[in-house]
Amino acid sequence: MSEPHNLGSSTSQAGSSNFVGSSAAGSSSAPLDEHAMLSNIVQGLREEKAALLTAFSEARARDYQVERF
């Protein structure tokens, strides 16, 4: 099982690096870069949500097992 505090660290870093890259882009491709940046952020948030839900479910299952004994 993975530890909850380790979840999503690479996602956050990927989102911030995409933000830096898009802000430094030329004005001619800015709308496409903004769309790509936002898509990456949304994807990262979806992955983070899935990781948090998994961690929550695992913790809840562990708590349930402890309560039964």
UniProtKB/TrEMBL annotation:
Superkingdom field: Eukaryota
Region listing for Disordered, in residue ranges: 1-31
UniProt name for this protein: Uncharacterized protein
Annotated source species: Mucor saturninus
Stretches with biased composition (Low complexity): 14-30
